[in-house]
Amino acid sequence: MSAAKATSGNLFADDPAFQVTAQTISVLPPLPLAGPYDYLVPEGLSVAPGDFVEIPLGRQTQRGVVWGQAKGDVESSKLREIYGVLPTEPMADVTRRFVDWVSAYTMAPQGAVLRMAMSVPDALEAPKPIFRFTLNRDFDAASLRMTPPRKRVLEFLGTHPPMEQGDILRETGAGASVVKGLVEAGAVQRLMVTPPSPFDLPDLSIPRPDLSDEQTEAADALCARVEEGSFSCTLLDGITGSGKTEVYFEPIRAALAQGKQVVVLLPEIALSAQWLQRFRDRFGVEPALWHSEVGQARRRDTWRAVADGSARLVVGARSALFLPYHDLGLIVVDEEHEHAFKQEDGVIYHARDMAVTRAHLGGIPVVLASATPSLETLANVEAGRYQRVELGNRHGVAVLPSVEIIDIRSDKPERNRWITPTLKKRLVETFANGEQAMLFLNRRGYAPLTLCRACGHRFQCPNCTAWLVEHRAWGKLQCHHCGYQAKAPDTCPECGAEGKLAPCGPGVERLFEEAVETFPDIRIEVATSDNIMGPKAATELVRRVHNHEVDLLIGTQILAKGYHFPMLTLVGVVDADLGLAGGDLRAAERSYQLLTQVAGRAGRGDRPGTVILQTADPANRVIKAIAAGDRDAFNEVELSQRMTHGMPPHGRLAALIISGKKENEVDEAAWRIGRVAPRGDGLMVLGPAPAPLSLLRGRYRRRFLIRADKGVKMQALIHDWLSKVKTPGSVRIQVDIDPYSFM
Ligand code: ADP
Ligand code: ZN
Predict the structure, then answer these.
(1) Contact present, 306 and 300 (Cβ < 8 Å)
(2) Top enzyme class of this protein (predicted)?
(3) Does the predicted TM-score (pTM) go above 0.90?
(4) Atom of ligand 1 nearest to the CA of 278
(5) Per-domain residue ranges for the chain?
(6) Whose C-alpha lies nearest to ligand 1, atom 9?
(7) DSSP state of 111
(8) What pLDDT, in 10s, does the model give residues 546-568?
(9) Fold designation for 652-737
């Protein structure tokens, strides 16, 4: 704790970063401003780097973190004094260096990054103390007027550790006034204690499951990294169902045994009910969860417990990386290839890459787990920067499912139907065997487009370059980019024709309708982010599927990851071409990863599984690679194509997105930026071009794409470039280093 200390004269005497005796310091507020500002330290107050302080900023009182020595860019007579130091554990040096690093890499202001590390303002207040009561053993009971309730309370406290009032009253049946009277008489003492951590210590005595030889070898390798206690990055590369989770539980245990903290990043934490149960079983405690669904009070307690080190196991979404760890010893990134790790708003960063950086700064190991590692990670393995441990077999008797391709051009479904005759036959067989099936279609809603058959009018979002998606269950048309909603109309707003509006293409709701008509006797359930919105719903779904209360699951990508249903033997991918349509840099890779994940849901128990891919392009190399189960061949072709074009992981990419509410202003700004675009060897700037989503949430958008050779200092280049142009405040320029979204 570093509450106000007496001044010793030389404020930063023991910090080599502060060679001068400074009465001025710099403080970074968690705001997207230029950077830290200089402040004076009032007489009698001592502060150290990392301290949370209260400062005047403009006319407001702000909180910030002492960032270091004063910058000296403002005369000290013009500086204002800090108000005081907050009674919070100071922010660790490594966390501050991490903030600086992320800011430099993503080109987001330091304060915007700091804000992610200070996301719970309440946590900076001193925790409210609680009171406990205990017997005063020196008190002479003879002087006390004894009543039966007083007697009960005294006897109870005599045989128990200090207790909170509520427990005393409940156990003894006495009223609050009895306790109060005993305190006043001096028979009972009131103790003020800091509230205990809401997180229990993990139980390290729970035995691990019997690991196979292959699993043991992998687990030992990862545990060795933890024992080394220095930076390393290891890819845990194992096919779906090979037991990656069981394996990385071992290094987690090893780090906990060293008394360190561990964070596991998961792409869809709110839906990871099954995973969390395994976690509880293995470590005997509730982990500290960190994601957007966690309530405010819990966030506050969690933030504090991470800062004081009492939360030992943290499981979270990408933002968990920015928590102020007391002593982090290991980071695990599960499903490291997932694009959900890329944050696209505010500070634009990729949590997997930042996790590696955080581990590097902290001198600790990081484990990246995946069945379909990203090409970036594989390239790092090739280059020797990352190590790799492999799991090539499914656990137990399970084997990878066989994959069949159905060409929908010859094996045609009926009009406005999407299940081919062959897939239908397979589904019938599966249900007849008492097994379960899943139909995968990565499209929410009923139909992705609504068309007027009389005039050709298409329903479009007023705020975005996007069609409105019909959600028949709610009677609404919705934009999946901005959330705009309109009531589904009966007449065409363009030509007034009645009853001419037609849904085009399938969404899961429409597929459900088809399945219900095709298989009237089986139990069907739809799972999308529209109805499985949190941990409760996900747990409930898992329970129903496990208990075989569901025969057929229909769902989007939320079903693709992590789930383990032993009786699920058939997976039908309704439109395997869907992800390939976009045609961006990573479309093939992403599609390959998603289809592999989906396919990986089949045949995880004793019964072998089958995956059926419905496609209109059976010669496509993604489809062929999935069918052949040949990941290496696919990656090789993909990598060589990227190499030809100098694309990541061989070259570097960045994007600029210029946006604003007035189209002409955006165009003007984009044109001016384009005029001073950098040129040079190993560098190519494309744009300005309208973004594929040229209108998003009411903002017009133009894009630049910058491709550079590995050696080019991308951030410095963009910094120089943008400093040459002045653009109006109404136009926003976002920099996206290593873009994953090309919309
Ligand atoms: P992955 O993450 O590689 O897809 P999981 O860790 O989910 O694989 O393991 C698949 C299933 O096999 C899970 O139900 C898991 O509990 C089980 N399993 C894996 N290894 C073992 C083991 N050594 N002993 C018992 N069960 C295991
Ligand atoms: Zn929209």
Answers:
(1) no
(2) isomerase
(3) no
(4) 16
(5) 24-118, 130-193, 213-391, 397-443+509-649, 446-505, 652-737
(6) 243
(7) H
(8) 999 999 999 998 888 778 888 99
(9) Alpha-Beta Plaits (3.30.70)
